[in-house]
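ok so for the tutorial part 2 we go from a plain amino acid sequence to predicted structure tokens. step 1 is just haveing the sequence, like this:
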Amino acid sequence: MHNDEKELNKSNWNGKDEADNFEDEADDFEEGNGCGCGSGGEEESSCGCASGNDGGHNNKNPFDAQTPISGVKNIIAVASGKGGVGKSTFSVNLAISLAQQGKKVGLMDADLYGPSVPTMMGINKRPDLTPHNKIIPIEKFGIKLMSLGFLIPEDAPAIWRGPIVMQVTTQFLRDVEWGELDFLVIDLPPGTGDIQLTLVQTVPINFAIVVSTPQDISLIDAKKALGMFDKVNVPVFGIVENMSYFICPHCNKRSDIFKHGGAKQASETLGVNFLGEVPIVEEICELSDKGEPIMTKDIHPEVKAVFNKIADSLILRSEQRVSL
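step 2 — the prediction. this is what the tokens look like for a chain of 324 residues:
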């Protein structure tokens, strides 16, 4: 084993014993012996998960445990109701746009089951640790990065129960040396499950962005993501329509492959901001696979304009929030 691997294995988020403990907690939960959060099951204690004998009526609100990440001014959660809508690609390019405008930016890949940020950013190495066993995020394109993909082999599946997923998510928030950041962009997995709930219960989210395609099936799930944020009192910044349209590079004719305008119509119906349309561009996919996001290239100004507009709006809104 290499020395850096030995050092990383000292951390409590990567040890086999710790994983076994998480598995035991999950077994307790499935057998009805606890909530899986390690609260010990004592009658007078409560984790806020509404698992007590009184149905949770006397349990404290789990959102009372929210505390900001030291040094991080704004947290942006990027979500989608379903997979395959280009959410990670959007997160990466938004983070780069914010960094290009002089902001200190971090990007946390919270999709533990399918981390894609390492590939999109062209990184294949493990992070170092501080003397106090905090993870030092890897930096590229002026962005501090953290992903499970930095810690496990590319083809290794994360076959974890909910309690483990919740613990890793919490440690990516708390045990990473993020330093001073203007924005921490968090790329969430699809859906509305354990990771999303852990995030909103652990830290206050300042902005939520929902990514959808124009398809009806995608919009249905996007509305679920919006509903989730509404229920947990997270302010929704707006909806983005990704893969909005295609312009043929040969004849320059526009084609609405997946319909068009559905996300804008949904935003109007739901009363949230419509942030823009990102077209289908061949280079977005090709460059992402190469670890060279399109925002790092001097091509397709119409694509870059969308990301820069959203970044400008986020910066303006964050400044207004501070002045209130």
